[in-house]
Amino acid sequence: MLQGADVAPRMGVMAPSPKPPLMEPMPDGPLSSGEDLRALALQYGPALRRYFARRADPADIDDLVQEVFLSMQSRGAASEIDNIEGYLFRTAANVLGQRRRRATWSWGRQEEVDELNGPADELSPERILIGREDFEALLAALRELPPRSRLAFMLFRVERLPQQDIARRMGISPRAVRALILRAHTRIYEMVGWRL
Fold first, then answer.
1. What is the pTM of this model?
2. Residue 134's closest CA among 177, 193, 83?
3. CB atoms < 10 A from the CB of 152, how many?
C-alpha cells in the first residue's frame, strides 16, 4: 500500500508549500490576508513598539501600533511598496502626528483657560475705553469700504442674512457675495488689525 505523500503527486494534487520565513520580502498581492499582516506584525511590531515608547504615552503604544497595521491593510498590495520598513516607520510618524493633532484641541482645556482669564463681564474704565476705540476704528474702516462690499458685509454680519439671500437682494451670485465679504474682512483687518 502506498503512503499518502506518495499518492498525492501522482494524482496531480500539490502539497501545501511551507510558509516563508519572516525576514523575506512580503509576497505580491493585497495585504488583506491575515497571514501577511500577521507576518508584518511579528517582524516589525517590536521595533514599532520601541519607536512609540520613545515618543508616546505608554498606554497608547499598542493602539498606535495597531493603527499602523490598519493603515498597511487599507493600503493594499505589498508588492507596490519598495521599502516596507521605511513605509511602516513613515506611517508610524504620521499616525503619531495625527494622534497629537487630535489631542491638541480639548473643550475641557478651553474652559480652563477661560476661567483663568476671569469673568468676561468685568467692565473696567480701561476696558470700556478700549472697546469704544475699537468700535470707532471699525466704523471708520466700514466707511472706507466700497459701497457693495460694505452692503454685503453689513447684511451678512449685522443683519445675519444667509449669503443666498444677500445674493438675491443684490442681484449677484452667491460666489460674488462671498468674494465681497472676504474683501471686506481683509480690508477691515488691514485697517483695524483684528478679525471679526
1. 0.39
2. 193
3. 28
